[in-house]
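Board notes, transcribed. Complex of a protein with 3-isopropylmalic acid.
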Amino acid sequence: MLVAILPGDGIGPEIMAEAVKVLGVLELGLVLETAPVGGAAYEAHGHPLPESTLRLAQAADAILFGAVGDWKYDKLERALRPEQAILGLRKHLGLFANFRPAICYAELTHASSLKPELVAGLDILIIRELTGDIYFGQPRGRRTAPDGAFAGAEEAFDTMRYTRPEIERIAHVAFQAARRRAGGRGGKVTSVDKANVLETFQFWKDVVTEVHRDYPDVALDHMYVDNAAMQLVRAPKRFDVVVTGNMFGDILSDEASMLTGSIGMLPSASLDARNKGLYEPSHGSAPDIAGQGVANPLATILSAAMMLRYTLQQPEAADRIESAVRAVLAAGLRTGDIWSEGTRRVGTREMGDAVVAAITGKTITTS
Ligand code: IPM
Ligand code: MG
């Protein structure tokens, strides 16, 4: 099995090094091949998603992705900005189903900005459609200044669009995920839209309702996106699976991730129709702390576990990683983002080493 390792920018290389270390000790016979992506690839090859990186991603059985982006590229023309790498990979590889779990680990209940009773035991799954919507509509804007600014332009717009097959396939993914989470039957899907204002999302709502006929055991409700944003902080445990479009999913998944105390803990998967996937932490490249050895590598390590479970069919290895992460948290180790009084603050490498030690059966001691 070939795994493409795309570390990217900012803290990407540091957190990826720890995930690679963890995959290494599992001795699964994986072939890992690294390629530049994002700003790092722009520096090296003049493009955020060079042909060679795209080819590796296409050839690989799965992709482990770090993070891309840095403010210093804000002035580049849009096609050359780091973010285009991840958008390009999603589009070229047909990665339309984005799974963003928000799980509140028992040890981290107090790291949430919400009251502990609101988030204790929280386990929701946001399923975001990833290759349609306003993200891939027609952008229009006349740039007048050489630095890419819109100074002097009269108008700019992007078109919001969804086709029936795009909505149908993500709806199927959501209903099936709800069933799986409920142990084979049942579960609940909340479809988030803005049908009161947008035609695109009235259509979304209608198509999701049609697909639901195939899943009578799964409960379905519909919610406007503004209300969903409110309910997520008012009573997040009312949700099970949330399915929504690309733009609303981008926003709501960041919101949901923070309920858990740290975005530094959350993995994500972007899958194609045959379960090939790109796996990445839900957080970004955090250029403000890059190179300091303080970033939390657990989201990337847990992304590797998700990759083993969903794409590489190695559930036992995935279990071993996830139990190791729980053991490390239980032992009181914390990177700065999840640190609280009475726990032990560790750096990126120390956290990765502790996960490795937990996998190989060594005991972790706190001091
Ligand atoms: C995400 C990110 C990306 C997105 C950016 C980097 C293009 O915010 O994966 O959520 O908007 O999809
Ligand atoms: Mg986002």
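The longest helix spans residues 164-181. The pocket of magnesium ion (ligand 2) is lined by residues 250, 254 (CB under 6 Å).
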